Amino acid sequence: MWSIVEAAGWPIWTIILASVVSLAIIFERLVSLRRSVVAPEGLLSQTLQEYRGGGARPALLERLERHSPLGRLFAAGVRNVDGSREVMKEAIEDEGRVVAHQLERFLTTLGTIAAMSPLMGLLGTVIGMIDIFGSQNASGTNPQQLAHGISVALYNTAFGLIVAIPSMIFYRHFRAQVDALLVEMEAQAVKLVEVLHGERHNGRQ
Prior knowledge:
- By secondary structure, this protein is mainly alpha-helical.
- 85% of the residues lie in helices and 2% in strands.
- It has helices spanning 2-8, 12-32, 35-38, 43-54, 58-67, 69-79, 85-103, 107-134, 143-204; strands spanning 136-137, 140-141.
- A two-stranded antiparallel ribbon has the order 1-2.
- The protein starts with a helix and ends with a helix.
- Belongs to the exbB/tolQ family.
- InterPro entries: ExbB/TolQ_transport, MotA_ExbB_proton_chnl.
- Residues 67-186 form the MotA/TolQ/ExbB proton channel domain.
């Protein structure tokens, strides 16, 4: 492996750095965007049960905020349960924008790596081509410099694509996963508002 890196020249180090960052983001998002972490099953029924048992207690709100991103939406709704339906929905939407931003964390960086890796490979290719042309002189061709230029050009092109392709695949996957999670969280939050507001309204009657 080290011989390949040496043959690829210094441009390969930018691609290696990009691959390390890309792998770190991929593994981090694979863990952080699990459904059981973001929108665990049964949280809605558990929240409704605890609210009916003791109302919007500070302990309940704190527990929801620490539980999961979906719990933070529920906490925003429960905290404003005494307001109108519109007030509850606005509070959840405001918190939802913050949650969405956190779910999309690092995805812009991953997308940038996916887009820039082929260009970094192209930079290595151009540098390799410069070495190839530099191998030509009045006395003929320098075989060692020619071989080095070809190695730099080919290895950088290949490594750039090797980094870019999986990075783009996971970027698209994570974007779709975040969108699906946000839709599900929104549906559950709306259901929470309807149930709590309906119970409060019926209780006053």
